[in-house]
Amino acid sequence: MGLSIGEGQDGAPLRWGRWDGQELGVDHFEGDLALLSVSPSGERLMTVTHCQEALAVRDTRGLVLEGAEWDAAPRHPDAEPDNDEALP
Q1: What pLDDT, on the 0 to 100 scale, is given for residue 25?
Q2: 86 is a domain residue
Q3: For residue 35, what pLDDT is reported?
Q4: Is residue 88 assigned to a domain?
Q5: Are 54 and 47 in contact (CB under 8 A)?
Q6: Where does residue 45 rank: exposed (0-12), middle (13-18), buried (19+ CB within 10 A)?
Q7: Is residue 76 part of a domain?
Q8: Would the N or C end of the chain have less CB density within 10 A of its end CB?
Q9: pLDDT at 26
Q10: Domain hosting residue 49, numbered range
Q11: How many structural domains comprise the chain?
Q12: 33 lies in a domain?
């Protein structure tokens, strides 16, 4: 079971728990991550960072298998500028 704990501006800790038939194990993921989705097999998680600048597919230990940084994403030529960009 995945649990993403929204703490507003203070962060978003992510926990991943599993029952092996005898014992409950819970992993605490590094950083502030929101859980977006779990694969049907339960072996992959899709997460986004608290500030939404990085999207990642992770294994259930938290290791990034594939990822994309917001700065790496192409902008549409007609998109409005970001808030921190100077307007023409």
Answers
A1: 92
A2: no
A3: 92
A4: no
A5: no
A6: buried
A7: no
A8: C
A9: 92
A10: 2-70
A11: 1
A12: yes
